[in-house]
Write a sequence for this structure.
C-alpha cells in the first residue's frame, strides 16, 4: 500500500492506494485554509506551515485507519508554478506565492511603468523559449523570483526556492528540497529538450542560480520519514518519501488508463485540457508542452478559472443574499445551483466568459464577462448553466488551437468540480463533440502520484 498525498489549492488530500488490487482503500482530506487573508487583489499567498500541518493531519488519519495494510511509502503531488524561499535549515522564509498570484502585473519600479512580467519577457526576448515548453507567465516561479529580486524582497538568508509539495516532502524527511522535471518546467526556465535548468534564461533574468533546487526523477525516493514526522503522523520512521510530481501529470496518470486517443479535461480550481504525445512538440502561445514521467510529453492548455468560476458565482450569490439579511451555506448554494442548472435545458442565450482571473498567454485580458443579457433571460438556472458552459468552452477552445496533434477519440473528465456536479459530464461531451466518461479514479492526482511511485 502506498499513500498518495496531493497538496492542492482547494484541498489537501491523501489516499491509501492498494497497488496489487488497483484500488483506493481509504481517503482523507482537509480543506486548504492556508490562504493569507486581506491581500491586494493581485496577490495570492499561502502559509506553508499551515500546508504542512494539513498534510500531517491527512497522513495521521490514513495511518490511524490502517486500511490496506502497512504502507510502503508516501508519494506526493501538488499545485505547480508557485514557490517559497527557505533557509539552510529548511525553514520557510516567505509565504508560498502561488500560481494564482499576479503581482507581476503591477506597475514596476521602471520609469516607463512596465510590469515585472513585461520586463522579464524583454530580458529574455532574444532567446528561444520553445525548448522550455512555455513562455514565462504571471504566477510562474521565474516571474515571481524575478519580481522578488527586482524589488529587493528576496530574503538574505534564502538558501533554496522550492514548490509547496517539494517543501512538504523535505519537511517529512528532514532533508533539503528537491524538484522534478514536471515542477521545474512549471517555473518557465527549465529546458525540456536538454533536461536541465536553462542557464541562459536564468542569467538573463538575473536570478540567483544557487536558489534552484536539484532536479531528480519524479517518484524517486528522497529519503525516509524523519522521527519528528513519524511522531506527528503515526507512520513508521524511515518510511520512503518519494519526489513529488506535478498535479497535471499526476491527474493524467490517475485518470487515463489508456492514453492513446484520450483527451483529459481536468476541472479543479483551475482547468486543464491535456493529451499525451510520443515526443516533445514545440509549444504554442497558449497550449504548452510539459514533461510526462515515463515517456513522451503532455500538451496542455490551462485556464485560470475552472471551478474558481463556479465558486465566484456561489460567493456572489451568498453576498447578495446577505445584503437582504439572508444566509445560505456554501454547500447548500452549490446544491441549488447544480439542481437549477440541470433543470434548465439551455442558457437562454446567456454567455459567460469565465476569464475572471485573466488568460495565460494574453496578459491584456484581465477579467471575464456575462454577455447577451436580455430583459427576460437572466434566470439563476440559466446563469449557472452558462457559467459551467463557459468554463468548459475555454478549454475546448484551447484544445481547438492545438492542430492535428490534438485529435482524440474520447474525453475523460476528472477533478473535484466534475465529481460534485455530474452535469459537467454532459456539458463536456456536448461542447467537445466527443464521447465522454468519468475518470478511472476519484482523487486522481493523489492516485497518480501513488501509481508512479509503485512503478519505480
Amino acid at each position: 500500500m502506498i499513500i498518495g498525498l496531493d497538496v492542492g489549492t482547494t484541498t489537501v488530500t491523501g489516499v491509501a492506494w492498494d497497488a496489487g488490487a488497483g484500488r483506493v482503500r481509504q481517503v482523507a482530506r482537509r480543506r486548504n485554509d492556508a490562504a493569507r487573508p486581506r491581500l491586494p487583489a493581485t496577490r495570492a499567498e499561502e502559509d506553508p506551515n499551515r500546508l504542512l500541518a494539513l498534510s500531517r493531519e491527512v497522513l495521521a488519519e490514513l495511518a490511524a485507519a490502517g486500511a490496506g495494510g502497512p504502507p510502503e511509502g508516501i508519494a506526493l503531488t501538488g499545485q505547480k508554478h508557485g514557490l517559497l524561499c527557505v533557509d539552510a535549515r529548511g525553514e520557510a522564509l516567505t509565504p508560498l506565492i502561488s500560481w494564482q498570484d499576479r503581482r507581476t502585473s503591477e506597475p514596476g519600479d521602471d520609469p516607463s511603468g512596465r510590469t515585472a512580467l513585461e520586463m522579464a519577457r524583454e530580458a529574455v526576448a532574444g532567446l528561444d523559449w520553445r525548448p522550455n515548453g512555455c513562455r514565462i507567465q504571471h504566477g510562474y516561479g521565474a516571474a515571481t523570483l524575478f519580481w522578488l529580486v527586482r524589488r529587493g524582497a528576496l530574503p538574505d538568508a534564502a538558501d533554496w526556492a522550492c514548490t509547496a509539495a517539494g517543501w512538504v516532502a523535505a519537511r517529512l524527511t528532514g532533508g533539503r528540497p528537491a524538484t522534478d522535471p514536471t515542477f521545474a518546467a512549471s517555473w518557465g526556465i527549465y529546458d525540456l529538450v536538454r533536461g536541465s535548468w536553462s542557464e541562459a534564461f536564468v542569467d538573463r533574468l538575473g536570478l540567483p542560480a544557487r536558489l534552484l533546487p536539484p532536479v531528480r526523477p519524479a517518484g524517486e525516493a528522497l529519503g525516509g520519514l524523519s522521527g519528528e514526522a513519524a511522531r506527528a503522523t503515526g507512520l513508521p520512521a524511515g518510511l520512503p518519501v518519494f519526489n513529488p510530481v506535478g498535479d497535471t501529470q499526476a491527474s493524467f496518470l490517475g485518470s487515463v488508463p489508456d492514453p492513446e486517443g484520450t483527451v483529459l479535461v481536468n476541472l479543479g480550481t483551475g482547468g486543464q485540457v491535456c493529451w499525451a504525445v510520443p515526443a516533445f512538440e514545440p509549444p504554442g502561445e497558449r497550449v504548452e508542452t510539459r514533461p510526462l514521467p515515463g515517456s513522451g510529453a503532455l500538451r496542455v492548455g490551462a485556464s485560470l478559472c475552472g471551478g474558481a468560476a463556479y465558486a465566484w458565482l456561489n460567493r456572489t450569490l451568498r453576498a447578495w443574499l446577505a445584503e437582504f439579511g439572508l444566509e445560505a451555506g456554501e454547500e447548500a448554494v452549490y446544491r441549488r445551483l447544480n439542481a437549477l442548472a440541470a433543470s434548465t435545458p439551455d442558457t437562454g442565450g446567456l454567455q459567460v466568459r469565465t476569464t475572471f482571473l485573466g488568460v495565460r498567454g494574453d496578459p491584456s485580458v484581465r477579467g471575464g464577462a456575462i454577455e447577451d443579457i436580455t430583459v427576460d433571460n437572466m434566470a439563476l438556472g440559466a446563469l449557472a448553466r452558462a457559467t459551467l458552459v463557459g468554463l468548459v468552452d475555454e478549454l475546448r477552445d484551447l484544445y481547438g488551437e492545438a492542430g492535428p496533434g490534438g485529435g482524440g477519440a474520447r474525453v475523460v473528465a476528472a477533478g473535484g468540480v466534475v465529481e460534485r456536479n455530474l452535469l459537467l459530464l454532459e456539458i463536456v461531451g456536448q461542447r467537445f463533440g466527443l464521447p465522454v466518461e468519468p475518470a478511472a479514479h476519484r482523487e486522481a492526482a493523489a492516485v497518480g502520484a501513488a501509481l508512479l511511485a509503485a512503478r519505480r
